[in-house]
Structures are given as C-alpha cells and as structure tokens.
Automatic annotation (TrEMBL):
Reaction(s) catalysed (UniProt annotation): S-ubiquitinyl-[E2 ubiquitin-conjugating enzyme]-L-cysteine + [acceptor protein]-L-lysine = [E2 ubiquitin-conjugating enzyme]-L-cysteine + N(6)-ubiquitinyl-[acceptor protein]-L-lysine
Species name: Sparus aurata
UniProt EC number: 2.3.2.27
GO cellular component: cytoplasm; Fanconi anaemia nuclear complex
Compartments (UniProt record): Cytoplasm; Nucleus
Stated name of the protein: E3 ubiquitin-protein ligase FANCL
Length: 371
C-alpha cells in the first residue's frame, strides 16, 4: 500500500514508524494542497481523520459529507486519495478564483508594468491584484475608466477589458504586450469616439432629456423634449455621429404629424459639418426647450391614471389625440384601464375605448414586455 501511495502521490509520506500519520501534498489541476491523514492504530481508513490547509478547507466547503462518505467507503488510503482528488476537481471548477492564483513572477511583472504606465492612472486594484481600474481622459477632457481583469498567466494570456463604451472594446494582445500598450489602445478607442460624445454632450446640456434617466457613456439613444407631451427619440450612430440619426417622434398625432412632415421634407438639408442638435433644429424648424428656458417639470407631466411620472422605467408617452385634452398616460396604465371597462372593445392586442379625461376615442396597444 505504501509503495503505491508513494508512486501516485510522491508528496504524501508516512511521518511515523507505525505509519498511522501521513503528511504531504495532494496535487489537483497543477496546484498543491497541504494534507495530513491520521489513521487509527488498526489503520482502518474508514475511521481516519483528515486535516487540511485552510485553502483546501475552503474548497471542500459544502462537500464535507461527500468526503466523509468516500472516506468510509474507501478500502484503502490510495483509493481515498483518488476519490478526494475527484471531489476537489469538481470543487475547483466552482471556485474559478481559487484555480487561478498566479505565480510569484506575476506580481513582479505587474509592478514593473504599472511603473511604466504610471501609478497615477491607477484608480483601484482588488486584494487579489487581478482586477485593475485605470482612469483615462479623452481630448475633450471627459474622464473614462478602463477595467482590466488580468489572467494568472499574464502576460501570456490576454486580459479581459471593459469600459463604458457604445461599441465593443477590441484589444489586440500578444504575450509580449504590456499594460502600457493596452492603455494606449484604449486611448485610441476613446479618440475615435470623441465626436460621438461631443454630439451627445451638446444635446444633454442644451435640451431636456426625458430618457434615459441618467445617460451613460455607452447610451446612444436620447429622448429629447420638444414640447408639452411631444418628444423626439434619436439614436446616434457611434461610428458616424454627424449623420442624420434614426429619429422617432412621440406624442399626440396632431402635434407629431407637422413635425414628421418637416423631418421628411427637410431631411436633405442635413449638414454633416454642423452638429446634430443644430441640424435637428433646422430640419424640424423648432427651438428645443432647454434648461435655460424651461423647467423640466413642464415636460414630465404625470400619468392621468396612476398620477406618477415614472412607472418602473416607463414615462407617460401615450397621449390623448384630442388637441384640447392631450392628457398623457403610461401605456400599461391605459391598457389596464380600458380593458377593465365594458364599453371598450379589444382586437388582438389593441384596445379601443374612451379617454378617461375627455371621453374621445382612444386606442392603446398592449405594452411590450421590457427585457
Ligand atoms: Zn400610469
Ligand atoms: Zn382625452
């Protein structure tokens, strides 16, 4: 028994003459764990006790009953060690961070790379020294954050990078690459998006944005207030921010139709050398209400049914088409309201009924499930 133990696990050796205490290491997925096994005087494996290092203990948490069961069922120490290895392999799979504790040279490599890059750029590093957040500034002075997750085999294996961008962050990495080079690639990506953010920053500062509530750097959509219960949704292309964006006018038909006609008639006037906001003004022939001229409350009129503005993420964007009424409702509120009335008529997912405010005909589609 001892010889095969030595052969399979050269690091597990008896500590005493009686061969009741074995000490050493168990190797799983190229990682060594300290282990000690105390056998009773009759050397019955079923009644032996297992002592593990804290890391092994951590890994076996939740598997204790299996280990105990295997210990009781194993005919000898060798088969138990093999069973334990199987359990550990399963355990390691559910603890990816345990599997990837880097070798010592990883840390010296990281420190030298950070010295080249400059410590001032480091915003955060986690206690495992594997997740880094670096700050960067684009040429318009906007701050950005690059999150890097280094692999244990860094730099042989490419790190995972993420940032708040409207496009996927694609980084070229070779085993010779450094954090400094990675950072410079990120700066180039930021530069390629400067125009896109300039366009959106101008819109954000000079108009009232109804959606998203708090735009992030990756958001390409803006819903801009045009007037009372009228808004335009624009989708700016991050690669071609100066081009005519995808536009969608929202509000009561009588207010939206003239704007839609202007958009269609003036589309050809779109000038890529001018800013998107200027172009929108020229094409729609309107002045957008801005924080300088209007209070936001002018546009955030609450729903006529639930009396609130935001219903989860939705805003009251279903407006009564009667020009004298123009009451906004949440689509979901109006749908539920009309559906409950016997005077309403439903055809597929559309309900035909009367406006709860002015009794003029109103229709509403079942609200799409937000993902
Ligand atoms: Zn509502
Ligand atoms: Zn109405």
């Amino acid at each position: 028994m001892e010889t095969s133990l030595v052969k399979d696990n050269p690091l597990l050796l008896p500590l005493n003459k009686e061969k009741t205490i074995y000490d050493g290491f168990i190797t799983v997925q190229e990682r060594d764990f300290r282990i000690r096994i105390h056998l009773p005087p009759d050397r019955q494996v079923a009644r032996s006790r297992l002592h593990c290092c804290w890391r092994l203990k951590h890994l076996l948490r939740g598997y204790e009953h299996i280990v105990k069961q295997r210990l009781q069922q194993s005919p000898d120490l060798v088969s138990f060690i093999l069973e334990l290895k199987t359990v550990l392999e399963v355990g390691l799979k559910s603890f990816p961070e345990c599997r990837s504790i880097p070798p010592p040279q990883y840390y010296s490599q990281l420190i030298s790379e950070m010295e080249t890059l400059g410590w001032a750029k480091l915003l955060f590093i986690n206690t495992e020294f594997q997740t880094l957040r670096l700050k960067a500034e684009d040429s318009s002075g906007r701050e950005h954050i690059l999150t890097i997750k280094l692999k244990s085999k860094h730099p042989a294996e490419a790190p995972e990078c993420s940032a708040d961008l409207p496009i996927p962050l694609l980084i070229t990495w070779t085993p010779q690459s450094t954090l400094d080079q990675l950072y410079n690639q990120f700066l180039l990506v930021l530069e390629s998006l400067t125009k896109f953010w300039d366009v959106l920053d101008e819109i954000d500062s000079k108009t009232w944005i109804l959606e998203p509530e708090k735009p992030s750097r990756s958001d390409t959509m803006r819903r801009i207030a045009v007037g009372n219960n009228v808004s335009i949704k624009v989708e700016v292309d991050p690669r071609h921010p100066e081009m005519l964006p995808e536009c969608c006018l929202l509000g009561a038909e009588h207010a939206v139709t003239p704007l839609r006609n202007k958009l269609n008639a003036n589309m050809h006037l779109w000038n890529p050398d001018s800013s998107v906001l200027h172009n929108l003004r020229d094409v729609l022939e309107i002045e957008f209400p801005s924080p300088a001229t209007h209070e936001k409350s002018t546009f955030s009129v609450e729903c006529g049914i639930c009396y609130s503005y935001r219903l989860e993420a939705a805003i009251p964007d279903h407006v009564c088409n009667d020009p004298r009424c123009g009451q906004p409702f949440h689509q979901a509120c109006l749908y539920e309201w009309l559906r409950a009335l016997p005077s309403s008529r439903q055809s597929f997912n559309i309900v035909f009924g009367e406006c709860p405010y002015c009794s003029k005909p109103i229709t509403v589609k079942m609200a799409a499930q937000k993902s």
